UniProtKB/TrEMBL annotation, chain A:
Region annotation (Disordered) ranges: 226-248
Protein's UniProt keywords contain DNA damage: yes
Provenance organism: Discina gigas
Protein name, as recorded: DNA repair protein rhp57
Cellular location(s): Nucleus
Low complexity: compositionally biased ranges: 233-248
Limits of the RecA family profile domain: 81-281
UniProtKB/TrEMBL annotation, chain B:
Protein species of origin: Discina gigas
Transmembrane stretches, start-end: none
Biased composition regions of type Basic and acidic residues, renumbered to the chain: 168-178
One protein family per Pfam: RecA_N
Residue ranges constituting the RecA family profile domain according to the UniProt record: 30-235
Keywords, alphabetical: ATP-binding, DNA damage, DNA repair, Nucleotide-binding, Nucleus
Compartments where found: Nucleus
Main location, first listed in the record: nucleus
Name of the protein in question: RecA family profile 1 domain-containing protein
PROSITE patterns, per database record: RECA_2
Chain intervals with Polar residues compositional bias: 20-39
Region (Disordered): 20-41, 168-200, 361-442
Bias kind Acidic residues: ranges: 402-420
Length: 380, 442
């Protein structure tokens, strides 16, 4: 029942009896959803004889809760439509269906060096542009987990943007950055510090580069040492003294991912801001899988992972984004950034493609290059 | 309400034989169903998704669930109804909805004027959704609502009942002495701490009970108000010996499935451009395969046995959903030839036109007896089926023993490998309940 504070922070008990009941219910292992769906008599039975609340009190309490949720839904119905952040390239903006939208989580996935970070850095500056230039006029937060923020490149981008838009706004001063090198720090920062920063400075973009790094390190380390107990800040309940097996870790990671995405998405909706994450890839091991069942994960992931959509194209370099289906389910859009040898010219090139997105058409791949002022689509 | 026929208030007021005798007049199929904009899919669904009922679309990310739901919303709007769209994770892409509406609107109409008939609500948590449907208020849904879309339900349940938390840790910890302080998580939703009053009341039983309660409320709202409710669902992985990790709809309990009248599974597949009658206007990336697991209340397959279910090929464009013309009968799209009519499959409504090349003569829905039962328990196929099945079945409140038949094949060839983990190509993919496997976790 302790999730009430996160679901409905504004909820206050209406009477002393309700306050008393609230604290009694807090001690029960019930979620707010349970409260709404259980019969009042059933809740009363669970409370046991220690509680002095009557069934009627409980009924009244639940009815108050439901109406508080109703008014929260009503209040949320008036949120503005999502805004979009530009990439400063008309072709890429069109490819992305107007840019990077607010109120949801967008992922850039690709190998290191493919150019994901170029997009992320660029967005931290373009979000500061005034709305008529495709920005939100708001600052950005850059949370890095691997390499710290690349400041030389950021300065270069900012200078180029200022001169090309003749707008004074894009400035590195308005990019807040922090490096979290382990999952516990990351979790603490995102859950407790980030909401305050976002509210104080009216942040318009949160960048997490990368989402997988700390999860990978944490769980691979735990897998390597059998007597060290795997512990994450998010989860005290499963910190058992015994070594945890692989599936247990994966199950817990799934849980942590859902919590992380939930926190970010709540911020995105509350403040109408965009959340952009970078994700890493790993090699795909079984590309000629024996299982040809249509619904096998291997087979279907060809389309939502971003690699292997074309059956002839499943080459040695097939990749699969980290964090799997659980994470993919939490995203509103996934954009693949890829670097490779062009079949025609034999040169190294970069491509970008929307794998899936609720707001944009997926499938079209576009070559791009990294220029001084950002990214530029290569249109023939 | 005014748009609905009077009979929709009391759906079961006529006897079955009466219903069978009354060929639905063509107007009723307009009011009675919301079209998917694909003739073939409408035909397979006996006219579209029915008003007064609950329908579900599941599929992996990017399969086109939201696009299909938006097309149905557009069709409901164009036929004069109102639409309630409930966001649970990401906002409705209004511009795409507008382009779908304007593709079919009259030229003199302003497609934006239809948007005033769309009510967008946010339900950021399961509690919000339950409050909406289980504690109804008079203003919801609005009077002339034809369609309510929930996009999507799986995210809410994943957030309320975190993956792996209930299934794995609690079950394990119940089998061994509690670690001191191990259960005093600050956010320990449903963790069976010392204060857990009822031993059977784990988070997972509550989850299934809530799914059943929610389905009951959805069905009753749909029936009472004569509106269609469309629920979008995501996929999760289950490990099946011999097949590896396989995708399954994330929300699938017997009582949930029972409440659904139509159940679609949208996914992608390889298709050669040469199989298309018009390859130039049909990019492969826009082609989706829709498996009709359940149509008109009749199950053609379950999430574990899809092979008897008809598959419809559709195309998702910016302007909406379309049929895909195929050159020849593909194995996927044609059901086994069978006797033409049966009691369980009424003749399609007169308004539906068939594409001759896709469905030459036989009806879409096979009338041969279903190989697999409509319901199957939630439990994954596990290494020691007898013991685990019983355990899972009890905890989940599941009708036990109904999947004997369709599990046979999956067991073949699955016995020589290790069942889990080792054969998994990408272990991180399968972090959900499918991994509950005592043999490995112990």
């Amino acid at each position: 029942m302790s999730d009430l504070a996160s679901i409905l922070p504004s909820f206050v008990a209406s009477s002393p009896a309700a306050t008393c009941l609230l604290s009694d219910i807090e001690a029960l292992p019930l979620t707010t959803a349970d409260l709404l769906s259980l019969d009042a008599l059933d809740i009363s039975r669970r409370l046991g004889s220690t509680s002095r609340s009557s069934v009627l009190d409980i009924k009244r309490f639940v009815a108050n809760l439901a109406s508080a949720l109703h008014s929260d839904i009503t209040a949320r119905a008036s949120v503005p439509a999502p805004a979009f952040i530009t990439t400063r390239d008309a072709h890429l903006d069109r490819l992305f269906g107007g840019g990077i939208p607010t109120q949801c989580i967008t992922e850039f996935v690709g190998e290191s060096g493919a150019g994901k970070s170029q997009f992320l850095l660029l967005l931290t500056l373009t979000v500061q542009l005034p709305p008529h230039l495709g920005g939100l006029g708001r600052p950005a937060v850059y949370i890095s987990t691997e390499a710290p923020l690349s400041t030389p490149r950021l300065f270069q981008l900012a200078a180029a943007l200022r001169s090309s838009t003749s707008s004074a706004s894009p400035s590195t001063d308005r990019v807040f950055s922090i490096t979290c090198s382990d999952l516990e720090t990351q979790d603490h920062i995102i859950r407790y510090q980030l909401p305050v920063l976002v509210a104080t400075h009216n942040v318009g973009l949160i960048v997490l580069d990368s989402v997988a790094a700390n999860f990978r390190v944490e769980f691979e380390r735990a897998a390597g040492s059998t007597n060290k107990r795997a512990k994450t800040a998010a989860d005290g309940s499963s910190a058992s003294a015994s070594a945890e097996s692989g599936p247990a870790q994966m199950a817990r990671r799934g849980k942590d991912l859902v919590v992380l995405a939930g926190t970010l998405r709540a911020l995105a909706i509350k403040h109408n801001l965009a959340v952009v994450v970078a994700n890493q890839v790993s090699d795909r091991f079984t590309r000629n899988s024996s299982s040809r069942e249509t619904l096998s994960l291997d087979f279907q992931s060809r389309w939502f992972s971003g690699w292997g959509e074309d059956p002839d194209d499943v080459g040695e370099d097939a990749k699969v984004p980290a964090l799997g289906l659980v994470w993919a389910n939490l995203l509103a859009g996934r954009i693949v950034v890829r670097r490779g040898v062009d079949a025609e010219s034999g040169d190294w090139r970069r491509w970008v493609r929307v794998v899936f997105a609720t707001w944009a058409r997926a499938g079209e791949e576009c070559g791009f290059e990294i220029v001084e002022g950002g990214v530029k689509a290569l249109v023939s | 309400m005014a748009a609905a026929s009077p009979s929709s208030h009391r759906l079961f007021a006529i006897s079955a034989s009466q219903a069978l005798g009354n060929q639905p007049p063509s107007t009723q199929s307009v009011h009675g169903h919301i079209s998917t904009s694909s003739h073939n899919l409408d035909h397979a669904l006996r006219g579209g998704i029915p008003r007064g009922k609950v329908a579900e679309i599941s599929g992996p990310p990017g399969s086109g669930k939201t696009a299909m739901a938006m097309q149905m919303a557009a069709n409901a709007l164009l036929s004069g109804g109102e639409v309630v769209w409930i966001d649970t994770s990401h906002p409705l892409p209004v511009s795409r909805l507008v382009s779908m509406v304007s593709a079919h609107a009259q030229p003199e109409e302003d497609p934006l004027s239809y948007l005033s008939h769309v009510q967008i609500l946010q339900a950021p948590s399961l509690a919000h959704l339950l409050a909406l449907f289980m504690y109804p208020v008079s203003s919801f849904p609005p009077e002339r609502t034809a369609l309510v879309v929930v996009d999507n339900i799986a995210t809410l349940f994943a957030a309320a009942y975190l993956p792996g938390h209930d299934d794995f840790n609690n079950r394990k910890s119940a089998d061994r002495p509690q670690h001191p302080g191990g259960t005093s998580s600050p956010r320990g939703k449903g963790s069976p701490g010392p204060k857990a009053a009822l031993p059977r009341d784990t988070a997972s039983t509550r989850k299934f009970a809530i799914m059943a309660d929610l389905m009951k409320s959805l069905s009753s709202l749909a029936t009472k108000r004569g509106l269609a409710i469309l629920v979008l669902n995501q996929m999760t992985t289950k490990v099946i010996p011999g097949s590896g990790a396989v995708l399954r709809p994330a929300m699938a309990s017997p009582l949930w499935v029972l409440g659904l009248t139509s159940r679609l599974l949208v996914h992608r597949n390889d298709i050669s451009p040469s199989a298309l009658s018009d390859p130039s206007s049909t990019p492969i990336s826009q082609i989706r395969f829709v498996t009709v697991l359940k149509a008109n209340g009749i199950a053609h397959g379950t999430e574990t046995a899809t092979k008897d279910a008809p598959v419809v090929v559709i195309q998702i464009q910016d302007e909406g959903i379309n049929d895909v013309g195929l050159v020849k009968k593909s194995k996927n799209t044609t059901p086994p030839a069978s006797a033409p009519a049966s009691v369980s499959a009424p003749a399609p409504a007169a308004t539906i036109t068939l594409r001759a090349y896709t469905f030459p003569q036989s009806p879409v829905i096979p009338t041969t007896p279903m190989k697999s039962p409509a319901l199957s328990p939630l439990g994954p196929r596990e290494r020691s089926p007898v013991r685990n099945k019983r355990k899972r079945g009890l905890e989940a409140g599941v009708i036990a023993g109904s999947d004997e038949e369709d599990s046979d094949e999956e067991w073949e060839g699955g016995l020589d490998d290790d069942g889990l983990g080792v054969e998994l190509p990408t272990p991180e993919e399968g972090m959900l309940g499918g991994f509950v496997k005592p043999a490995v976790s112990g």
